[in-house]
Amino acid sequence: MEARINMFENEVAGKFVKRLVAASRPVEESTLPKATQELVKIRASQLNGCGVCLDMHTKDAAHAGETSLRLNMVAAWREATVFTEPERAALALAEEGTRLADGHHGVSDDTWADVRKHYDDEQVGALVSLVALINAWNRLNVIVRNPAGDYQPGMWS
């Protein structure tokens, strides 16, 4: 499988990708736990069917010490006992913020209250930004059909 276009070689797409990378820095530098960041990226990428993002974020999470049990349970997080209450709130936000086009009415008041219960203002800002960013990355990669499977942890750092 080959991508429809190379996002890094295309002048406009390349500029856009560089700006998305820059936009992710405040989230990466925030106090939002790195494990939570990866779980949110994985869940949104599952929902959006983004293979290249799943490849990257599952490998990065494993490389950072995430267990295979937790990685394997992200898709069924509601039934899994391996996630903390704050992680569950973040995963709910990721799902509701990703499924906007599924006839969903956005993020519910209950989910928002749960997120506010577990995260401070900086972390909430990071979570909201992260959900928007990973959805943008997912859409770019799915549209151009970027292939998955060859990612090595840290190769795009």
UniProtKB/TrEMBL annotation:
Gene3D superfamilies: AhpD-like (1.20.1290.10). Coiled coil: none annotated. NCBIfam families: ahpD_dom. Residues 28-96 form the Carboxymuconolactone decarboxylase-like domain. It comes from Amycolatopsis heterodermiae. This is Carboxymuconolactone decarboxylase family protein.
